[in-house]
């Protein structure tokens, strides 16, 4: 059985390319990766690995949001398991915990003057998310959906971050704006709680138990 929790986050943040050292300093030692360097992907790998814990609380001056907890804006979850379960949840307000523990395995990059594309293979020991959702779906013949509290725990996540950034001129300086951040995780175990999937709370627990069993079974 094939199962996927498709999780697409769109984060909008700005990274300053031409840093004025007197004004803002990233809380790490600056490393420059050269575009022509044949080992540039290893360079990016080291930089990203160093940046992650440093960005844990964000860099307010650069408008970089905290990554742990990471505010989930417009995040969407798609729960799908064969024809039994299909549900789509949009996070109205929520947070993800655990990104600062990410281990970078490999980086692939395509760099041009006005666009950066990175595919970053990552392992995350544990990701926990919670918040408020709105959603809909079907479980067997049962219609699911409405809104309420949810949480989702993913253990031993293997994933690829797809990061896309575009050059942007502002006040005579060039910035790289990250306009896309996507990941489709492959997980070893999943556990979720979703309030109000069905109106009756007792039935909701039964449906959830079945969903968790399907997720657990199909994620191994
Ligand atoms: C940071 O965000 C604030 C408020 O959203 C905005 O006024 C400011 O221009 C932003 N700064 C940068 C460098 O993007
Ligand atoms: C998810 O929410 C349910 C219901 O509030 C709670 O019992 C459970 O402990 C939560 N899971 C985690 C991992 O926090």
Automatic annotation (TrEMBL):
Residues annotated as signal peptide: 1-18
Family matches, as Pfam families: JHBP (PF06585)
Transmembrane spans: none
Gene3D superfamilies named in the record: Haemolymph juvenile hormone binding protein
SMART domains in UniProt: JHBP (SM00700)
Domain of life from the UniProt record: Eukaryota
CC terms in the record's Gene Ontology section: extracellular space
Alphabetical UniProt keywords: Signal
Name of the featured protein: Putative hemolymph juvenile hormone binding protein
Species of the source: Lutzomyia longipalpis (Sand fly)
């Amino acid at each position: 059985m094939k199962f996927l929790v498709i999780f697409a986050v769109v984060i909008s943040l700005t990274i300053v390319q031409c840093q004025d050292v007197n004004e803002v300093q990233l809380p790490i030692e600056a490393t420059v990766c050269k575009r022509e360097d044949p080992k540039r992907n290893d360079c990016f790998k080291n930089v990203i690995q160093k940046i992650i814990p440093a960005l844990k609380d964000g860099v307010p001056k650069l408008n970089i949001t905290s990554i742990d907890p990471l505010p989930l804006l417009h995040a969407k979850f798609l729960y799908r398991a064969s024809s039994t379960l299909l549900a789509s949840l949009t996070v109205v307000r929520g947070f993800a915990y655990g990104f600062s523990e990410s281990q970078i395995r490999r980086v692939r990059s395509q760099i041009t003057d006005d666009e950066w594309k990175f595919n970053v293979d990552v392992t995350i020991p544990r990701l926990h998310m919670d918040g408020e959702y709105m959603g809909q779906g079907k479980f067997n013949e049962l219609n699911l959906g409405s809104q309420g509290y949810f949480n989702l725990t993913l253990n031993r996540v293997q994933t690829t971050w797809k990061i896309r950034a575009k050059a942007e001129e502002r006040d005579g300086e060039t910035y790289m704006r990250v306009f896309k951040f996507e990941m489709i995780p492959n997980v070893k175990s999943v556990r979720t709680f979703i309030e109000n999937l069905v109106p009756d709370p007792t039935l909701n627990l039964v449906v959830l138990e079945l969903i968790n069993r399907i997720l657990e079974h199909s994620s191994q």
